[in-house]
Amino acid sequence: MQAPRPSAISVQMSVKTEIWVKAHLRRCFAAGLTGVVARRGAAEAGSVFVKVSLPGGTGRILAPAAGPAYDEKGSRRWAAPLGSEPVPQDDIDRFLARQIAFDPDIWILDIDDPGGTGLLEQPDDDRPGSGDKAALRPFAE
C-alpha cells in the first residue's frame, strides 16, 4: 500500500485557547467594548464560554456549539444554550457553575456589549430550522 501524497493530506490547525481569548478581548477593546477573563481555563484547549452582559442586570451566554468546534472556514461555532433572549445574570451564573462542575478547564469571558453579541455571532438564516434563534453562525474573524 502506498502512503498518501502530501497534497492529499488535510491539515487543520487551531489556535491555542489562551491566544484566541487574548485576541478576542483585543478585538472587543478595539470596538469600544469592555471585557475581562472571569475564569482562566486550560491554556491549550479549554472550552470558551462568553457571558455577554447587558444593561439592566440581564445578559446572554454563548457556549461552544455541539459537534465540531470550528466550521469549514475555521471560525469557532457558537450556541446560545439559554436562548437568544436576555436572561437574568443569576440564571447565567447558575448555568456557568454547572459547566465548571462538569469541566473545570473552561474559560469564561465577561463582555459588556449593549448589542448583545460579544462580537461573536449572528443568526444563521441559511440553515434549515433558522427560526430557532439559539442556532448561531460565527462572524468571520
User: Which percent band covers the strand fraction?
Assistant: 25-35%
CATH homology group of the domain at 35-124 and 133-138: Protein of unknown function (DUF1491)
What low-confidence regions span 5 or more consecutive residues with pLDDT below 50? 123-141
Described by the principal axes of the CA atoms, the overall outline is globular
The topology string of helices and strands comes to HEEEEEHEEE
For the sheet with most strands, the description reads: 6 strands, mixed
Structural class: alpha+beta
Q: What's the N-to-C terminus distance?
A: 41 Å
Give the C-level CATH assignment of the domain at 35-124 and 133-138: Alpha Beta
Reported by name, the CATH topology of the domain at 35-124 and 133-138 is hypothetical protein tt1805
- What's the architecture of the domain at 35-124 and 133-138, going by CATH? 3-Layer(aba) Sandwich
Mean pLDDT across all amino acids = 81
What's the number of extended β-strand segments? 8
The count of helical stretches stands at 2
What do you see in this structure?
The chain has 141 residues and is α+β, with helices and mostly antiparallel strands. The chain has a domain at 35-124 and 133-138: hypothetical protein tt1805, CATH 3.40.1530. The chain has 2 helices and 8 strands. It has helices at residues 17-30, 89-102, and strands at residues 34-39, 48-54, 58-64, 78-79, 87-88, 107-112, 121-123, 136-138. Strands 1, 2, 3, 4, 5 and 6 form a 6-stranded mixed beta sheet that branches. The N and C termini lie far apart (41 Å).
